[in-house]
Amino acid sequence: MKQIISFLRQLHQNNNREWFNAHKAEFLEHQSRFHQLVEEVIVEIGKYDPTITGLTAKDCTYRIYRDVRFSPDKSPYKCHFGAFITQGGKKSGYSGYYFHIGTGLSNEYPHCHLLAAGDYCCSPEILKIIREDIVDGEGDFDQIVKQAAPTFLIDKENSLQRNPKGFTPDAPYSEYLRLKSYCLCHQPDNAFWETKHLAQHIAKIFEPTKDFLNYINRAIDFSREK
User: Fold this and answer.
1) How many whole angstroms separate alpha carbon 4 and alpha carbon 198?
2) Distance in angstroms (rounded) separating the CA atoms of residues 217 and 48
3) I need a labelling partner for 198 at 20 to 30 A (CA). Which of 47, 84, 88, 175 fits?
4) Does 151 have pLDDT greater than 80?
5) Model's pTM, two decimal places?
6) Is the pLDDT of residue 71 over 80?
7) H-type helices in 46-179, by residue range?
């Protein structure tokens, strides 16, 4: 994976079509290697989460080309390789296991390396269901979050300043009710990608997040049954 990181750093410094086209063969080689890793991770995660069994890299990975239509940043290419492994594939609407290799040049997204579990774009309906479950669960969600720590920490970025409508100011576990997304995150360092038996290692790190995903996906299923 060291070669992939090196390529992404070069792409970051030369994010234009001329450079990319001149290095297209190199890109395809690195993409193929990443896809192989993704399929190995799918097999390993499938040993404890059968909902993702049978997925392929194509079901879980993304194009390198950026959608720049509504972005002030007109750089044409992403500088990371990412995969979202979830039941039904990346477009299913379920929460899942996400990891990406970035440039490693900073701790900011998307340059950081990232492992994450959850749903970053929950609909208002799903958010309401999750929040109600948290209040009614008498601490079960808190235990699930702590089960994944200290490797994974819940993403509190852009949390609400006060409890959302329908929840009292002193509602239990208010720190969770104020979240705008339900996602556990971990940022490994560059050396992580040189770990022996990398796919098995990634799957083992993700395993304590399975109950968290089940919790979120239960709310998603419930919203679809209504």
Assistant:
1) 14
2) 16
3) 88
4) yes
5) 0.95
6) yes
7) 57-60, 124-136, 140-148, 174-177
